[in-house]
Amino acid sequence: MSAPTLRKGTLGTADIAFFVISAAAPLTVMAGVAPIALLLGGIGAPVGYLVAGITLAIFAVGFTTMSRHVRSAGAFYAYITRGLGKPVGIAAALIAMLGYNGMEIGVYGLLGSATADTAHALWGVDVPWLPVSLLGLLLIWYGGFRSIDFGAKLLGVLLLAETGILVLLAGGVLLDGGGDGGISFASFSPGNVFVPGMAAVLACAFAAFTGFESTVIYRREARSPERTVPRATYIAVAFLGLFYAFVVWSVIQAFGDAKVVQAAADDPGGLFFSAITTYVGPWAADLMHILIVTSVLASLLAFHNAINRYGLALAEEGVLPPALGRVHPRHRSPYVAGAAQTVLGALVVIGFAAAGADPYAQLLLWVNTPGMIGLMVLQLLAALAVFLFFRRVPHQEGALRTVVAPLVAAVLLTGAIGLVSYNVDLFTGASTGVNVLLVSLVPGVFLLGLLLARRLRRHRPEVYADFAAEPPEDSPGPSSKPVSTSVTL
């Protein structure tokens, strides 16, 4: 009897889009980060989210074009291997593990602090953050243990709830005619866009899209992946870019162009709650508090599922221990990889708690930052890989998709990584030494990956030779691989 595999043909376009958008946690990003963007860039902040969305849409053009030519389960590292060679692909795989684990594990600190804030705001109860975070680890483990369609349905409900409350806020503001001065479109005028703080706004905006590229991770479980994966990618980028810009602009209208920056300075954490209380009612503010917690849970589950599938793919490649490649016979989930990821998360969370760290300012921000930069570096490497891949293989794709889009995306992503790295103190609030260490983790892991590739080539040549190779057309996984078309360096 053959070993169980992931459940094929389960996820449609909407399901994959739910995973990607949920990972971005729109409500948490808006209520928690958008006020900082307003402080940094003024009323032109909505344009920053549009620019980030356009940049990532350009990246998606080449990325999704290449997805029609790559069937490997390895997602980004498979693409990068095809274009840039096995050493860079193996290094990219380690950066992916750093990126997705960093983005998820740090958010357990946010879960603890957000739940504590909600309990205090609604009931005046002080809740310790560590038990909440540990309970969250168990809930997310169970969500990942269950079948992928269970996770898709759950995320669909949670995502509709968190976006619904933001639509309710925007609708209340617009129906009431806004604050002082009425409805204004001054946010989009050049004088308010080309300001010194816009570079920092762009850094915040790019961070708000983190994880959008994870659509290809679900290729093996998608229905008609050649169509559903590109569609889900475009839907996620378009929705996030337009929705973020619209919501931030609506909140500006709630206070008025002349007063919103001061309101954000006076109470950044309460800006959205104040607006929804005024234009919808106190009950909506209470509901928003609760939905921020569920938004964080949805983000955790989305990243957890992505990490598990990366772990599964790397175990099947022979890079990680084979046990991580086991799939549950009933739920068809990578349950061993999920358990290992949960244990890793628990160790990091407990370690930060034992050190007396703040769950938000240190566990969330310090762990998320290298994860965020790592995923942006993956996007840059993938853009370069798209260009080089189509230079070497025969194809019928147009130059706009295979030359212009990936090169433009590479230039823009390089700028975005530079902005985030230069403004890293906005994300961490830490000392220069801590910031240097956090940013250095990404190139450090990349170098470690290159060394691992060298070791595999010398001591496990069969694993190195088959890394990220294409599976046969009828294969559910990457076993029995033919020779890869990537460059062997």
UniProtKB/TrEMBL annotation:
Annotated ranges, domain Amino acid permease/ SLC12A: 17-453
Keyword line: Membrane, Transmembrane, Transmembrane helix
Subcellular location: Membrane
Amino acid composition bias (Polar residues), ranges on this chain: 477-489
Cellular component annotations (GO), alphabetically ordered: membrane
InterPro entries reported for this sequence: AA-permease/SLC12A_dom, APC_superfamily
Membrane topology of the entry: Multi-pass membrane protein
Transmembrane segments: 16-40, 46-64, 76-100, 120-142, 154-173, 193-212, 232-252, 287-307, 335-357, 363-390, 402-422, 434-453
Region of interest (Disordered), residue spans: 467-489
Keyword Kinase among record annotations: no
Metal-binding keyword on record: no
Record GO biological process: transmembrane transport
Protein name according to UniProt: APC family permease
UniProt lineage: Bacteria, Bacillati, Actinomycetota, Actinomycetes, Kitasatosporales
